[in-house]
Amino acid sequence: MPLDVYLNVAVGGVLTGLVYGLLALGLSVIFGVVRVVNFAHGEMMTIAMFIAVVLCTGFHLDPLLLLVPIAAVLFAFGYVLQRGLINLFITRPEHTQFLLLVALAIVITNVLLIVFGPDARAVQTSYALDSFQIGPLIVDAAKVYAGLAAIVFSAALFAFFRFTLVGKAIRAAADNHTGALVVGLDVKRLYALTFGLGAACVGAAGTMLTLLVDATPMLGPSYTLLSFVIVITGGLGSLPGALFGGMLIGVTEALAGLLFTPSIKSMFAFAILVLVLLFRPQGILGKRLA
Amino acid sequence: MSALLSAGVRPRGALLLAALLAVLLAAPWIVSDYLLTILIIILYFAYTGQAWNIMMGFAGQLSLGHALYLGLGGYAAATLFTQFGIGPWLGLLMAMPIAAAGGAIIGFLAFRFGVTGVYFAILTIAFAEFTRIGFDNWNFVNASSGLFLPVKQYAHNDLWRLRGDPTMFYYVILAATVALFVLCHFLIRSRVGYFWLAIREDELAARAAGINTFRYKMLAVMVSAAVTSFGGVFYAFFYNNLFPEQIFSIFRSIEIILGPIIGGIGTLVGPLVGAFVLTGLAETLNSTMTAFGIDLPGVKQVFYGVCLLIVVVALPDGVWPPLARRLGIGRDDS
After folding, report:
1. Alpha carbon of B97 to those of A247, B201, B237: distances in Å?
2. A288 DSSP 8-state letter
3. Is residue B71 part of a domain?
């Protein structure tokens, strides 16, 4: 195969990987602060995908326009979820948290299944068949838009954590829970905000993903796993790490799909995860563990 | 033997267990074929839950990928049976070491490199998924088209080849569940068992006390994996088919875990109670739905999920510990 085929596939993989990275960013933010592994992550993403599909087919809207509104809806969902349910569990053992979120995931998947049925649903856009040509490279327009939107959304999140007072308070609560309580921060509210922000990432990523993948209620578990793989590869708690991990996994899957069979591609993602856990357990961009 | 068995068990608890065993032994003469099949499923979950409990409940290592050991065991025995005509009991002699080796690889990599807690749990999922995709593309075991065990009309039950009617399968899984219960009962009161509990409670303190934590964590993973593999062999021979998609699926792993967590983690009776509660719940929902003529895919699972949510919110320690206190047999935390 000529080189430009590989290059095309690799660039496509990077762009898809950016969307994966945004999804994983949500998981990383939640775990980094609230210390709860969101085992319903991919299932929450399917909620966002179905909102996008319904609005796009019903009102002929563009997924790119829906990015912020759907992120806001998921933010509210995440906020309420943390406040009402998960907050009871933050001091409970990991396996109990796991059970809680798995139960939630079962409910989400099957409610979607009852409402929308098992069929795959796609979004129609005017640019679905467009592509950009840069030299020998041909890239799908939808992938470019999705990748760019993921970068913009992540950049906004970085800026929020870095420059706003609330963002700093959240980082303080993550660094030292007791210390944050001592200086009078409302940690419960900050946790709820954080879970909301993580869910907003999921909302944005899910909306973008409708440009790339058809929505079905059954997508959840594989995207939950994908987020785990990316976050651990990039480094749990490292925000740039999640994006980097997303791109790495995106490229790996795309190239593996090209070189071998598409069905084997996630095996490579898991192989990378195993290698990272063995040789750099804190993740590629993660800080060294104490 | 009976004196040994009852050591540390309160008389009332022992009496209740004996009564339960008597009912279970007599069950095939009492219940319908449908109920017998449900009892087989319950005992299967009690068995696999108990096997998982060795690793998590005793040694405190959270595995979310026990489907790996089910799959390795099931595939080892089923391949030997279909390709070489070797029966499941000899196959089990292959299945157990293979599953234990799988557990040893994960354990070695994780414990050597200090992968613990959530990271360890996710590593176990990753290995199960990795293996699932591998089997999905491995032609020797028929890849994703799956393995089928020959189903013939047998004139009599062939226990040696595990071919026969549900009653035979029922007694096989009942015997296995009782055997594992007894094994765990002794394990947890042995030197190794106390080491495991020490590691579960405080690994650093255990190491400070001179316990080789690496070795005993490895032992927990390997014992749990080997014991779980029988669950896979049973699954393969009971259902007569194996698909990587199903046997290695993350849902298989979750099913195994639900019972002991709902029943009461780290207790001997918990996995049994949890299996009864969960399968009972699922089947009650099933028949209620049919009775009301509701045939919408997903409704049952939504109720199931909501019930799980309620149990996990209301009973943080699981069903058994508070139930045991109420029955006056104390907390069975052994």
Report:
1. 39, 29, 19
2. P
3. yes
Which SS3 state, helix, strand or coil, does residue B163 take? strand
Quote the minimal CA–CA distance from B36 to chain A in Å.
27
The answer to whether the beta carbons of residues A46 and A16 sit under 8 Å apart is no
Count how many domains chain B has. Answer: 1
**Quick check: is A194 in a domain?**
yes
Question: What CATH number does the domain containing B102 carry?
Answer: 1.10.3470
- Give the residue from chain A lying closest to B62, CA to CA: A95
Q: Which residue of A has its CA nearest to B307?
A: A103
Q: Check CB contact under 8 Å for B130 and A270.
A: yes
* A23: CATH: 1.10.3470
Q: Which domain holds residue A67?
A: 3-279
Residue B35 is assigned to a structural domain of this protein: yes
Which pair of structure tokens corresponds to residue A72?
């806001």
- Residue with token string 């750099």: A280
Q: State the amino acid at position A130 in one-letter form.
A: D
Tokens (6 digits) for A31: 């775990």
Number of domains in chain A: 1
Contact residues, chain A, for B313 at CB < 8 Å: 85, 88, 100
Q: What is the full per-residue pLDDT of chain B (334 aa) written as tens digits?
A: 444 444 455 677 788 888 889 999 988 888 888 899 999 999 999 999 999 999 999 999 999 999 999 999 999 999 999 888 888 999 999 999 999 999 999 999 888 877 788 888 888 998 999 899 999 888 888 888 888 888 766 667 777 777 878 889 999 999 999 999 999 999 999 999 999 999 999 999 999 999 999 999 999 999 999 999 999 999 999 998 999 989 998 889 988 998 998 898 888 899 999 999 989 888 888 888 888 877 777 888 888 888 888 888 888 888 888 888 887 775 544 4
d(CA A117, CA B234): 34
In a domain, A288, yes or no: no
Looking at the partner chain, which of A105, A106, A281 has a beta carbon nearest the beta carbon of B113? Answer: A281
Q: Predicted ipTM?
A: 0.83
